[in-house]
Amino acid sequence: MYVCVCNAVTTRQISASIAEGADSFRALRDQLGVGTCCGKCSQDVRSQLRQECASDGCCRKRQPS
Ligand code: FES
After folding, report:
1. Best exposed site among 3, 11, 26, 48 by fewest CB in 10 Å?
2. Does 58 score more than 80 pLDDT?
3. pLDDT at residue 14 above 90?
4. Dihedral over alpha carbons 22, 25, 29, 32 (to 10 degrees)
5. Listed residue (7, 10, 8, 41) closest to 25, CA to CA
6. Index of the ligand 1 atom closest to the CA of residue 36
7. What is the phi/psi pair of residue 4, to 5°?
8. Which domain holds residue 27?
9. What separation in Å is there between the alpha carbon of 54 and the centre of ligand 1?
10. Which residues, in sequence order, are CB contacts of 25 under 8 Å at separation 6+?
11. What is the CATH number of the domain that holds 11?
């Protein structure tokens, strides 16, 4: 499913970036371009980041920004 329509970024791409170590919104923005146009996807990207970090425990090491 597309999360960022402006940059054609899907939930799968975001999951893959998180699995490869992206642990902040800034990292996802830099890698995938999410939130760099209209910004409407920002909350959804942050929400996915929080959920996936919580499920693998990376939030215990570092809070997503
Ligand atoms: S939907 Fe992501 S920047 Fe517009």
Report:
1. 26
2. no
3. yes
4. 50
5. 41
6. 3
7. -110, 100
8. 2-61
9. 24
10. 34, 35, 42, 45, 46, 49, 64, 65
11. 1.10.10.1100
